[in-house]
Amino acid sequence: MKTVRPFYKLSVLSRYENKIIHGISQRGGGVSEGCYQSLNLGLHVGDETARVIENRKRFCGELGIKLSRTVCCEQVHGTNVRIVDEKDMGRGTLTLEDIIENTDGLITNKKNIALMLFFADCTPVFIYDPRNDAIGLSHAGWRGTLGNIAAKTLRAMHDAYGTKPSDCIAAIGPCIGGCCYEIGDEVAEKFNDIFTSMHLPSTAFSRILFRDEGKYHLSLYEANSALLVQEGISSENISSEHCCTSCNVDEFYSYRAEKGKTGRHAAVICLK
Ligand SMILES: [Zn+2]
């Protein structure tokens, strides 16, 4: 049997390995088949439940986390953020029936509770506040990025734990890159309005939204990074790695590259 592939890590968070566990799953070493092969962690995509649970156990096992201490949310491309504590442990891990509904961002300051969200091209945004020992994880596709779910997660951490953006570390996980992410004119216009009002240098602006062969392209990595900086996180404290899920479909699930018939990888963060 193939073992679970080493999961993907982000260097700004790896510096705090004595305080937090984090990782993003990759496709190898699971039991799912067909378009889900092989470590599909999404329960909502039509794969067999028993296989997904086995895959989740394998991935959490590799990270040294118990699935029963993990929390999942519904992820509806919205901007609701929820505080998570002991009573939420296990929600959404074995069934969708007890999942935290209508939520795209989770925060906690409790130790040994893992936040786990699922992705196929959308952007995982991790936030760690080392001063107050608090974490946040959010799901930002184009709608969530437009709604600034990353900043809303940060503000929820401020309200709940006194988090200051200037203390925070942020990491943006693998997501579809500007190289592969064509968007329609209407969506491009919405992003153009937001980033024009931020008065970014033109070089920074052109990394977020640009035209290639007559089509608009959007970088969710660059967009979320700019929004986090605007919110007060220092650019040195934001991850610099940028991995495109669509270019790396052997390693990650890509909704765009696989035309919607695919599984989900997971992003996890947990305070030790
Ligand atoms: Zn790409």
Explain what you see.
By secondary structure, the protein is α+β, with helices and mostly antiparallel strands. A 5-stranded mixed sheet has the order 3-4-7-6-8. A 4-stranded mixed sheet has the order 1-12-5-2, with no helix packed on it. A hairpin with a 2-residue loop joins strand 10 (209-212) and strand 11. It has one domain (11-175, 238-271): CNF1/YfiH-like putative cysteine hydrolases (4-Layer Sandwich). It contains 7 helices and 12 strands. Bound molecules: zinc ion (ZN). Zinc ion (ZN) binds next to loops. Residues 177, 179-180, 244, 246-247 line the site of zinc ion.
Describe this structure in a few short sentences:
Keywords: Hydrolase, Metal-binding, Transferase, Zinc. The chain is α+β, with helices and mostly antiparallel strands and 272 residues long.
Structural Rg: 17 Å
What is the CATH architecture assignment? 4-Layer Sandwich
Number of domains: 1
Can you say what the CATH homologous superfamily is? Answer: CNF1/YfiH-like putative cysteine hydrolases
Query: pLDDT below 50 for ≥5 consecutive residues: which ranges?
Result: none
* Strand order in the sheet with the most strands: 3-4-7-6-8
Oligomer: single chain
β-sheet strand percentage: 15-25%
Number of strands: 12
Category by helix and strand content: alpha+beta
Characterize the overall form: globular
How many strands, what sense, and barrel or not for the largest sheet?
5 strands, mixed
Mean pLDDT: 96
- What is the helix/strand order? HEHEEEEEEHHEEHHEEHE
User: Ions, cofactors, ligands: which are bound?
Assistant: zinc ion
Span from first to last CA? Answer: 30 Å
CATH topology-level fold name:
CNF1/YfiH-like putative cysteine hydrolases
Helix amount: 25-40%
In the CATH scheme, the class would be Alpha Beta
Number of helices: 7
Organism: Pectinatus haikarae
Keywords: Hydrolase, Metal-binding, Transferase, Zinc
Family: Belongs to the purine nucleoside phosphorylase YfiH/LACC1 family.
Protein name: Purine nucleoside phosphorylase
